[in-house]
């Protein structure tokens, strides 16, 4: 299996696993952003994971912008949207797939 295919396959759990937790919560509470944030940061361990993911997402967005521009990756905005709508668990493997596809295309 090529590395880019592995990255692409990792997008599936990167989408399904977070949404398996979010969708039931949305079904119960609706799109209540203040409540979501309050529940996320209601414990120190929750805050730890929440802040970790937010910082990781910011780093990923910088990486997508810089590496996408450097390699002229096609449609890097797709990975930005994936990161904002789902999270790092989808945005990172998706951008790594896009990046690896670009790198593979340049190889003989």
Task: Give a short summary of the structure.
This protein has 108 residues and is mainly α. It has helices at residues 3-29, 33-40, 44-71, 77-85, 88-105. The chain has one domain (3-103).
Describe this structure in words.
- By secondary structure, the protein is mainly α.
- The chain has one domain.
- The chain has 5 helices and no strands.
- The chain is elongated and about 50 Å long.
- The chain starts with a helix and ends with a helix.
- The model has no long low-confidence stretch (mean pLDDT 96).
What is this structure's SSE topology?
Blueprint: H1 3-29, H2 33-40, H3 44-71, H4 77-85, H5 88-105
Helix pairs in contact: 1-5, 3-4, 3-5, 4-5
H/E element sequence: HHHHH
Averaged pLDDT: 96
- The rounded distance between the terminal residues' Cα atoms is 18 Å
Largest sheet geometry: none
Strand content: under 5%
Helix/sheet category: mainly alpha
Tell me the number of structural domains.
1
Kindly state the percentage of residues in helix: over 70%
Number of strands: 0
| Radius of gyration from the alpha-carbon trace, in angstroms | 16 Å
Instruction: Name the overall outline.
Output: elongated
Give unreliable regions as ranges: none
SS field, number of helical segments: 5
């Amino acid at each position: 299996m090529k590395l880019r295919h592995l990255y692409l396959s990792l997008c599936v759990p990167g989408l399904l696993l977070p949404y398996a937790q979010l969708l039931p919560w949305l079904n119960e509470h609706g799109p209540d952003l203040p409540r979501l944030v309050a529940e996320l940061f209601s414990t120190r361990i929750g805050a730890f994971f929440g802040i970790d993911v937010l910082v990781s997402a910011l780093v990923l967005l910088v990486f997508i912008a810089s590496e996408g521009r450097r390699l002229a990756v096609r449609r890097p905005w797709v990975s930005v949207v994936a990161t904002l709508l789902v999270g790092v668990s989808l945005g990172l493997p998706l951008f790594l797939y896009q990046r690896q596809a670009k790198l593979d295309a340049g190889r003989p």
